[in-house]
Amino acid sequence: MAVKQKILLVEDDDALAEVLGEQLALHDEFELARVDTATAALAELTQPGHGFDLILLDVGLPDQDGRETCKIIRKNKITTPIIMLTGAASEADTIFGLDAGANDYVTKPFKFGILLARMRAQLRHHEQAETAELQIGDYVFRPSLKILEPSNGASKIRLTEKETNILKFLHRAAGAAVARDTLLHEVWGYNAQVSTHTLETHIYRLRRKIEADPSEAKLLLTLEGGYALSQA
Ligand code: CA
Fold first, then answer.
1. How much distance in Å is there from the Cα of 73 to the middle of ligand 1?
2. Distance, CA 228 to ligand 1 centroid (Å)?
3. What spacing in Å lies between the alpha carbon of 14 and ligand 1's midpoint?
4. From the CA of 17, how far away is ligand 1's center (Å)?
5. DSSP symbol at 4
6. CA of 13 to the centre of ligand 1 (A)
7. Do 221 and 230 form a contact (C-beta atoms < 8 A)?
8. Is the pLDDT of residue 59 over 80?
9. Does domain 5-128 sit in CATH 3.40.50.1000?
10. How far does residue 193's CA lie from ligand 1's centre (Å)?
11. Ligand 1 mean position, distance from CA 60 (Å)
12. Which residue has the higher pLDDT, 126 or 49?
């Protein structure tokens, strides 16, 4: 049997939680856990390797606005898809506006079929992102695992979080030069107190990992406008 998708339902409405539990139980693919406060949800999710595949998060929780909970979840670098359950259309308006980091929402009362379709869409989308394989030179780059696999079968190269993000962003630029400031902001954030020297240090270390001759870079190029990945 296929591995079940673990769903965390964060909802203080017992009647709704019960109905959702019954409906989801009809579908073999899901396994539901439920908590009724934001505090309990965060306690579950901040366990290392919490193992949830999707979070259904009520906006009107007794101890916190669910949108705030959503923000905290994202601040903890938890990328699990989140579907917000909102009590009113007016709440829905602000979910994305507040940049809380939710992936989708449904407005109560909703038809179960609608929620199910949204859940499946998010699970599918997340799985694709997790298993993404990008080609960089002679390497297969797996961003979610932070590794580069050489095509000649040599042992894989482990990357740090920053190195992974640098490569992800350069790959997205498809060979165009990315200015140092842009790369710095994308990888470290706009408020980070880091200088281009920090970026250069990371590029130096990255080249030592990925270039045959780090002093003659063939893959991670320094161009006039910044850095680029060779498309050759
Ligand atoms: Ca509620």
1. 18
2. 49
3. 9
4. 10
5. P
6. 5
7. yes
8. yes
9. no
10. 40
11. 4
12. 126
CB 205 within 8 Å of CB 161:
no
86, 105 Cβ separation under 8 angstroms = yes
With 80 as the cut, is the pLDDT of residue 3 above it?
no
Same fold yes or no, 5-128 and 134-229:
no
Note the CATH number of domain 134-229.
Answer: 1.10.10.10
**Cα 79 to ligand 1 centre (Å):** 23
**Interatomic CA distance for residues 20 and 125, integer angstroms:** 22
Give percent of the chain with pLDDT exceeding 90. 61
95 falls in which pLDDT band (50, 70, 90)?
A: low
Domain boundaries, the chain: 5-128, 134-229
Span from the CA of 76 to the centroid of ligand 1 (angstroms): 23
- Report the alpha-carbon distance of residue 213 to residue 45 in Å, rounded: 43
Mean pLDDT computed over 134-163:
91
